[in-house]
Amino acid sequence: MLLLDGKSLSASLKEEIKATVEERVSQGFRPPHLAAVLIGNDGASETYVASKVRACEEAGFASTLIRREASISQEELLEIVHQLNKDPQIDGYIVQLPLPAHIHADTITEAILPQKDVDGFHPVNLGLMMQNKDCFLPATPKGVLTMLERYGIETSGKHTVVIGRSLIVGSPMSVLMARNTNPGNATVTLCHSKTQNLAEITRQADVLIVALGKPGFVTADMVKPGAVIIDVGITRVEDPTKKSGFRIAGDVDFESVKEVASAISPVPGGVGLMTIVSLLQNTLKAHANSLGI
Ligand code: NAD
Hints:
Low-confidence stretches: none
Mean pLDDT: 97
Number of helices: 10
Radius of gyration: 19 Å
Strand order of the largest sheet: 1-11-8-7-5-6
Number of strands: 11
CATH architecture of the largest domain: 3-Layer(aba) Sandwich
Shape: globular
Bound molecules: nicotinamide-adenine-dinucleotide
Strand content: 15-25%
Structural class: alpha/beta
Distance between the termini: 42 Å
CATH class of the largest domain: Alpha Beta
Order of helices and strands: EHEHEHEHHHEHEHEEEEHEH
Oligomer: single chain
């Protein structure tokens, strides 16, 4: 069984990014600059944003964290977005989701300038992705593609089953796996909460990508022997033995599935780290675009 180790892969990709940044800076360009907007005090969001800011520092990027209380109005948040759109020093930025219930997340996402949308959530980027044109790919599905590519996993002609149809993971993942690209060229089945006979379908998967947010949901009996398993799930599960009081769990029952699969990505140490690398890669691309290099 091959462990799809996001930890070592993301570390080497970050080194590649850092080398590119050093080269650009040595040519006299300013470093790439990523901004993150964090609203409220959601524990998981705080952790994600802190990891993104740390990754920026490690890669030699400039980073700016904009924090506001959960009571911020939609108009005030839109004003921050407009300022970031206009700021020539900011190459790309993210507004960390989820947002408080009184803010319409789609309105915020759509207000982000597509050229600075390094999370790849804007409808313009999603549309360009559908057309297989140059764009910012959504960070998590892009991270999965990078993982498949770097580990040399063949996807052409294979049956890929994706569980979960969210706009940030499952739906774009299914589109990307079906495109005429490498990785891609797969025959794709997209499963969701209304899918019937799910296990029957997952047992046909050569590549199974799981993103539904239910810890340990995929068990060995749902997996074809030799399948490649990508676990996107990240859920905080109470664990009194941990100092923090919780542990991070994936959507796949790793212990049983690793006995059946030919390759599997762990949680933690898998796709989550690849998502951050995608964000850096997208920002590096935005930097090159904005400086015309
Ligand atoms: P979501 O809640 O928006 O979507 C969940 C999807 O799962 C839905 O489309 C739903 O139809 C499907 N689903 C729910 N129950 C199901 C069932 N019983 N059978 C089949 N399908 C079912 O979730 P999301 O935002 O896509 O996130 C999914 C998971 O991925 C979460 O654990 C989240 O934390 C994680 N995530 C990880 C990263 C990363 O960087 N690794 C990034 C984003 C999300």
